[in-house]
Amino acid sequence: MRISTKGRYALRMMIDIAEHGDKGRVTIKDISERQEISIKYLEQIVLNLKRSGLLRSVRGSSGGYELAKKPAQYTVGEILRVIEGKLAPVACLEDEINQCRRKKICKTLSFWEGLYKVIDGYIDSFTLQDLINSEEADDAGDYSI
């Protein structure tokens, strides 16, 4: 399992919208400038986030994107799965029902299933709000005299 650039950028985009959404809807242009990600790349990502219902969009002069729910109601796992699909460590665990012809005799299957549970448990234990708070906590301790 490896998180792609799209997955990483999707998290950054969602954090940016959460942090700047209190001033109104957030435009892709503004996200692009703050996050240093191309508009074209963000457009690909936002399409999936919008289709999945994680983001809402409004057209027009006061248009842009907004979260569909509060940051504390999104898990990191939910966001990553929209972009990445299942985060299974091996191919045989990607489908709802394991289709591998060796699953009954596989000596490593329980290991991979355990790893998958740990991965899912970890990414689902963090919310978008947790990431925002973590960043704020890091900034709070950074000062100079």
Describe the structure in brief.
This protein is mainly alpha-helical and 145 residues long. It is built from 6 helices and 2 strands, in the order αααββααα. Strands 1-2 form a two-stranded antiparallel sheet.
List keywords for this structure.
145 residues, mainly alpha, two-stranded antiparallel sheet, 6 helices
Describe this structure in words.
This protein is mainly α. The protein has helices at 5-20, 28-35, 39-51, 76-84, 109-124, 128-140, and strands spanning 55-58, 64-67. It has six helices and two strands, in the order αααββααα. The protein has a two-stranded antiparallel sheet with strand order 1-2. A hairpin with a 5-residue loop joins β1 and β2. The longest helix has 16 residues, at 5-20.
Give the N-to-C terminal Cα separation: 43 Å
Which word captures the global form? elongated
Q: What is the arithmetic mean of pLDDT?
A: 91
The strand order across the widest sheet is 1-2
Helix percentage range: 40-55%
Treating each run of at least 4 consecutive H or I residues as one helix, how many helices? Answer: 6
The topology string of helices and strands comes to: HHHEEHHH
Spans of at least 5 consecutive residues whose pLDDT stays below 50 are: none
Rounded to an integer in angstroms, the radius of gyration calculated over CA atoms is: 18 Å
